Amino acid sequence: MLANYGYQDGSGVYYIRIDTDACVDCVERGCLAACPEQLFAPMIDDYDDEVVEVREACRQRLAGHCAACKPAAGYDRLPCTAACPAGAIVHSW
Which range marks the domain in which residue 56 is found? Predict the structure, then answer.
């Protein structure tokens, strides 16, 4: 299942998509430690599998939370995507 977290406003579209089918097999959960803003939290999905979600309180402010990690800030990839061995995390901007 693809879970989309984020929003769209006059300045752009800001979403993080998590492929929970890929996330379920990850035991490391590297994204939890890699995100300096601690946007991610573990959760139990509808199938009783542990996956990662974007914290509710952060979903409407992704542009601000993720700004320091954007590739323009010197990263080839965002820390959360680089830390995800399954490639389950994708950013829309």
Answer: 2-91
